[in-house]
């Protein structure tokens, strides 16, 4: 019998965070084990208890949250992963990954993992099209990171433009393709 695949779902502080709940639910229905790593800023939008309830697993949040555990969480999570999916991914997390900055649990897990990393950006069109963001994405692609491009639609600011998180079904199909 095949081993269940483990996905680390990195969740950042984009207004598209509500779609992470559906992504998580769909991944579980597909038969994956999902462990959520939330950035501190994302907790202002959705509390960890929601992801814990949907995943049936502990939600990991901070670098130094685990009192009494001898395990180095970012390393153990990095080793657990068959795939790290960051959805939604802000310009901030993309920039941190591209520069190797590890100042939160999610960026540390990404830097420590040998598993494929799949990034689904969600941000304002101006931020997404900014030359710095595009340069960071190009750099990460050249290093083997995978991206699911955002779509055009109504943005949180009220504008219509490129920057909406890809459709849940598109994200699930890409995960399945990578984990085949």
Question: If you had to describe this structure to a student in words, what would you say it looks like?
Answer:
This protein has helices spanning 17-30, 48-55, 73-80, 91-99, 105-112, 125-129, 131-142, 168-178; strands at 6-11, 33-38, 83-89, 117-121, 146-147, 151-154, 160-164. With 180 residues, the protein is an alpha/beta fold. It has one domain (6-178): Rossmann fold (3-Layer(aba) Sandwich). The strands form two sheets. A five-stranded parallel sheet has the order 2-1-3-4-5, sandwiched between helices. It has a two-stranded antiparallel ribbon with strand order 6-7. Helix 1 links the parallel strand 1 and strand 2 (33-38). The mean pLDDT is 93.
Number of domains: 1
Q: Runs with pLDDT <50, length 5+?
A: none
Helix and strand run: EHEHHEHHEHHEEEH
The CATH architecture category equals 3-Layer(aba) Sandwich
Distance between the termini: 15 Å
Strand segment count? 7
> How do the strands of the widest beta sheet line up side by side?
2-1-3-4-5
| Protein structure class | alpha/beta
Radius of gyration: 15 Å
Strand content: 15-25%
Helicity level:
40-55%
CATH C-level category: Alpha Beta
Question: Judging from the principal axes of the Cα atoms, what is the shape?
Answer: globular
Give keywords.
single chain, alpha/beta, five-stranded parallel beta sheet, two-stranded antiparallel sheet, 8 helices, 7 strands
Describe the structure concisely.
By secondary structure, the chain is an alpha/beta fold. The chain contains eight helices and seven strands, in the order βαβααβααβααβββα.
